[in-house]
Structure formats: structure tokens, C-alpha cells
Amino acid sequence: MTTGATLALTLPSIRQYHGTTMVVKYGGNAMTDPALQKAFAQDMVLLQLVGIRPVVVHGGGPQIESALKRLGKEGKFIQGMRVTDAETMGVVQWVLAGEVQQDLVGLIHQADGKAVGLTGRDGGLIRAKKLRLKDQADPTLEHDVGQVGDIEAVDVSVIRHLQQAGFIPVVSPIGFGEHNESYNINADVVAASLAVALQAEKLLMLTNIAGVLDQSKQLLTQLTPAQIDALCADGTISGGMIPKIAGALDAAKSGVKAVHILDGRVPHGLLQEVLLGQPCGTMIRA
Ligand code: ADP
Ligand code: MG
Question: What is the pTM for the complete model shown?
């Protein structure tokens, strides 16, 4: 097929998605490889130019990890959640809001787009409380993961204002509590909540792997809630994939029409998925 013919194939998607909001979780390799970072920023600008309204939520696992290492601290995870003591929370805030978010805002500007970075504190976007993390195997047990937040409420008015003014919002996954304390919230969980609150057409989560893999490491291109339950129960889904799949399922069940966990190693894989409908990972439908 000629390149022109491929471009013409994007017409139905552009028509269908024009004016809709898509929430994109920027994570995995897309967030750590300079060429992929640049490609991602271009993709966001392109989506906006064809009339789709992207809202980006970024992660920061690798960047937080290296900042902690520089301070002689070691990251610890329980069921995919980073154990966040007060000192770690400080690091999380400056790495996410000061580094990762602002780097992405800059890259979008370099791609001739307009982006505004904010955390969940800005505009009262994400109100949170301390997460009570139940043990996966024994729900009567609880883990103390420190200042990890559980989202209580989201107020998306600030996002709507930015969208109306033509900005791409870039959100750091930090929430505020009733005593003005900060919470570190898993970025996948934030992306899912925002997708629901914004009634997004799609939730797109970029990761560092081909998608959700089965026990024999084969890519699962489509997943239903029942299959997800089974994969979690038998331990096939573990670590960082736990909050991701939980968020994906939540969003799918709450009216987000399609949720995709995408291979963030493929340059412009997101455009391929959204504009050409060519799968680039795992799709979750309620
Ligand atoms: P990110 O949030 O940046 O996408 P995470 O490390 O938090 O990255 O989550 C992705 C990781 O989840 C994968 O790299 C993989 O190690 C892990 N994982 C656990 N179970 C699975 C599974 N069944 N399929 C794919 N990845 C899985
Ligand atoms: Mg993660």
C-alpha cells in the first residue's frame, strides 16, 4: 500500500474521534528513550491537530528510582505500589512535577504544541486519602505503603478549561489530602480515574512490554473482565501490571469505550492504534 493510501485510511477514525477526549498514560520506554519521548510528543500534537483532545498522565518509576539511588535510598514495592515514606514523597514530588512533567511540556512545545503541566493539587483536581492496601491473597491483611494515595474525588474543571483554551494538559500523579498533605498515586490509577471523569473515548496506557502476556509469555490482544480476574488470581499478572490492569478494567466498566495497554517501545504505535485501528498491544473491553 502506498503511504498516501495508508493516510487515507485514517479518515474514518479522524471523523469518528473528532472532538473526543483521550487520556494517555505516558510511561514505560516512551518515557525513558529520547527518540521515543520525541515521537510521543509529536503524537500528542498530531492528535490535537486532527481534533482529538489528549490529556496526558505521566509516570516516573525509573526517574524516581535513580533519584532515590543518588540519595542512597532503595525503592520498595508491595503489590505494584511504591512504599512512600515522607522523604520518598519529597523526592517523588520534585522528580514528577519538577522533572518528568516539565520535560514533557518542553518536548510538546518543541513539536509546536501547547502544553500545561499540573499536579493533582492544581485546581483541586485529585483529592486523596491514605491507601489501605489489602493483601492480594488474604484480604483480611493490610499493607502500610506510607503516603500512597487512594483517590477520593476528582474535579476535572481545570482540565476542561485548559482543553477549551487549546492546551494539552500534562498531569503528574500527585493528590492532596484533607490536611493539605501530598499523596503519591500510581499513574495508571490516576489515568483511569481521569478517563472516567472526563468520559473519555479511549484510555491509552503506554508500557515497557508488548502488552498483557499470558503464562507462556504470549501477547493477549483482547481481554474480558473474567479473563483478567483469572490472570490476577493465578499470578500471571503481577507487579506494575496489577494497578494498570485494575485501572483499565475500572475505566472499561465505567463507560470508557476502549482501553488499550500499548507497547511503548514501538515508535508512533499509539497513532497506529488510534488512527488506523491496527492493534499495538492489549485491548480491554467491559
Ligand atoms: P509502566 O507503569 O511504566 O508501564 P510497570 O513496570 O509499572 O511499567 O508495569 C509493566 C510491567 O509489569 C512489565 O514490564 C512486567 O514486568 C510486569 N508484568 C507483570 N505481569 C505481567 C503480564 N502478565 N504481562 C505483561 N507484563 C507484566
Ligand atoms: Mg507502573
Answer: 0.95
